[in-house]
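Friendly challenge for the regulars: who can give me the structure tokens for this chain first? No prize, just bragging rights.
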Amino acid sequence: LQDGCTRTWSRPTGPVVAALFQFPSKTDARAMRSQLRDALGERGVLPVRVPQVTGGELYLLEAGGGRGQLVMFVCNERVLQLHVEAPGSTPDPLLVRLAQGSNRRLHERTGCPL
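First reply, four minutes later:
Bragging rights claimed.
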């Protein structure tokens, strides 16, 4: 891991956490995504594709005893994770909106250097 950025902000349903991880290569970024996917899978939390987000994977954490929803995707040498406390079986609209315009919107919202 070369660099990263994490920001948290509040909303009525609970906190939102955006974490960006910068790696030296796409291979390293994909390996990190695979490790997290495997760790969640061991808890019975399987990814669901988010149709509106290219390459995005949604994890409904309640299945493994966690809380909320996590969207994760790899973009070049970056891994982006967005977590909201919102329960439910469909992607939280905020996660979809942020992920669709991830670089611009997340930079504006979080100040992370994307």
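The first strand starts at residue 3 and ends at 9. The chain has a mean pLDDT of 78. Your move, everyone else.
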